[in-house]
Amino acid sequence: MFALLVGHAGPALAFEDDEACLMCHKYPKMGRIDEDGKQKSYYVMPHVFTKTVHRNVPCRDCHKEIRELPHKPLSTGVTCDSECHSIQNPSTGKPFSHKPIVDTFRKSVHGREKVATGSDADKPYCVNCHTNPLYNAKEEKPPKHIVDRCVVCHEDSGFAEKWYNHTSRRIREIKRSPQEIVEMCSACHADKGMIERRQQVAAQEGRELGRKFPIAVTSYEESFHGKVTKYGNADAANCLNCHADAVNYYLSVHELLPSRDPKSPVSSQKRVETCKQCHVRADSNYAALDPHPSSKKEDNAFKHYAELIYGIVGNSVLVALVGLAAFETWGRMRDGVSWRFREGSSWWRRTRRKSNRIP
Ligand code: HEC
Ligand code: HEC
Ligand code: HEC
Ligand code: HEC
Ligand code: HEC
Ligand code: HEC
Ligand code: HEC
Known about the structure:
Blueprint: H1 22-25, E1 31-33, E2 39-41, H2 46-49, H3 59-62, E3 83-88, E4 95-97, H4 99-106, H5 126-129, H6 144-154, H7 157-171, H8 178-189, H9 192-205, H10 216-222, H11 224-230, H12 239-243, H13 249-252, H14 271-276, H15 284-287, H16 301-334, E5 337-340, E6 346-350, E7 355-357
Antiparallel strand pairs: 1-2, 3-4, 5-6, 6-7
Helix pairs in contact: 6-7, 10-11
The protein binds heme C (7 copies).
Residues 80, 98, 101-102, 105, 110, 124, 126, 128-130, 170, 175-176, 184, 250, 253-254 line the site of one heme C (HEC).
């Protein structure tokens, strides 16, 4: 019934289901329970897919394992370094691919293959951090007054809308908020199981891990940056302000390196420069302030006990003050003195004939 899929129907401008994948995949209930008992959905929402950044990519440019219909279950999934047969990179004329990003990523601390063997499965692959984002999700359609202007010269509103969407998203620098970045990194770096597994693997392989590896997230949350970021401040440093280079940021977030590597923005060689982006007068003394401080006993005993003692002293003073005020009030009430808001609010004594103010 299904012909063997050979070749493609040429470059398509917007999503066309020219290989009839949606014939089956448009049904909401389509899915199954996998070997681990997890519910998997194979439903593709056509009206949503057409609004995503990948809407012009035919299904099989990514799902390249599928060579015939009906197709077999898949083993490797989608690797992000495949070549789009249907989309050219307009700047090089070659088939488009994310291969340059994937190659950079492979050399980073997180480098792994799609099908991860052994403990590499703890590291993120592209799809851990990226879904298939919508173009300008907050806009129903590209603003008409802008498209109208493009159409004056370009004649075709389809062309204008496509390029409006593609470009405006980047010009507006639509990206994750600092809070989202902290959440993204914390998904793994706050996971005790992951931390222990990596420490074991590193010990077996005789590899070094950063001093702060086990407490990266808990300590950041205790830091000044972490606290103000949590309450919505967007100017304080999030994980990527320090760990990625601000120059060529979008590539740099994919080549994170350990602080031991002199190329890392948090290495001892480059740390001053990194703090200076925001703390313009920072010098090597300032840069030595710990961005991952911890007052947990097992991480920093001195800080832990210092904070404990300050806490006890502070709380005792507070209790003493409140206690003093309470005793004073109680004593005055016993003497028949009560609170009234009158003539500047003060203590008043109630007598039989009149109230008189106590000086
Ligand atoms: C005849 C109906 C049909 C058509 C047409 C079809 N699929 Fe599927 N697809 C299925 C079924 C059924 C499954 C579930 C297979 C399973 O559970 O083993 C599935 C599963 C999948 C999966 C998940 C596979 C896995 O093992 O995780 C992907 C990806 C997929 N299809 C992509 C496509 C693409 C791309 C096309 C178009 C080239 C396409 N399908 C066309 C019926 C179809
Ligand atoms: C830009 C690449 C890309 C395009 C285009 C794309 N997909 Fe996918 N698709 C993925 C990725 C990535 C996943 C997540 C699974 C994985 O990582 O292998 C996925 C998952 C799926 C799944 C669920 C499979 C599972 O194992 O959970 C189905 C079904 C599917 N796609 C069908 C389609 C259909 C039909 C189209 C065309 C309308 C399409 N995809 C277009 C990249 C793509
Ligand atoms: C640890 C999380 C993480 C991983 C893993 C990751 N990325 Fe990213 N990626 C980001 C962040 C953060 C940005 C910056 C934009 C933002 O904040 O949303 C970004 C930006 C991008 C952009 C630019 C998007 C745009 O609209 O301008 C592309 C393309 C990209 N990543 C592709 C990839 C590919 C391909 C992989 C796999 C090799 C990958 N990413 C792996 C976090 C990640
Ligand atoms: C005054 C006429 C004019 C207006 C208005 C205009 N363009 Fe253009 N555009 C051109 C010309 C002419 C070119 C050819 C590039 C060149 O050589 O300067 C071009 C090139 C382009 C290209 C590159 C196409 C390619 O494949 O090389 C894109 C994309 C584009 N315009 C998008 C837009 C968008 C989006 C708008 C509206 C926001 C817009 N243009 C408004 C005249 C215009
Ligand atoms: C999917 C899980 C995951 C996510 C998400 C993730 N990481 Fe990692 N990260 C790891 C694993 C696993 C390692 C350990 C690699 C090793 O053993 O060398 C690691 C290593 C690191 C290292 C080097 C540690 C060392 O001591 O050598 C740094 C720095 C780092 N990650 C920062 C980040 C930042 C910043 C983010 C957010 C943008 C992030 N990670 C997101 C899993 C993750
Ligand atoms: C103000 C800058 C700054 C911020 C913000 C920051 N870090 Fe760090 N990070 C550093 C420095 C500097 C080191 C090296 C500390 C040392 O070993 O003395 C480090 C070390 C680490 C390490 C240990 C591995 C290594 O390379 O030494 C991990 C993992 C890590 N950070 C993850 C994160 C995560 C996740 C976040 C966000 C929740 C974050 N960092 C926020 C500066 C920062
Ligand atoms: C993305 C910008 C940014 C980066 C990068 C950055 N900080 Fe900050 N930092 C801030 C902001 C904003 C505050 C809030 C306090 C303020 O206004 O001074 C702050 C506060 C601090 C404080 C609290 C006390 C104070 O001086 O106000 C310390 C300590 C600190 N940063 C150290 C560092 C160190 C060390 C580095 C480099 C490893 C660094 N910061 C990198 C933005 C940044």
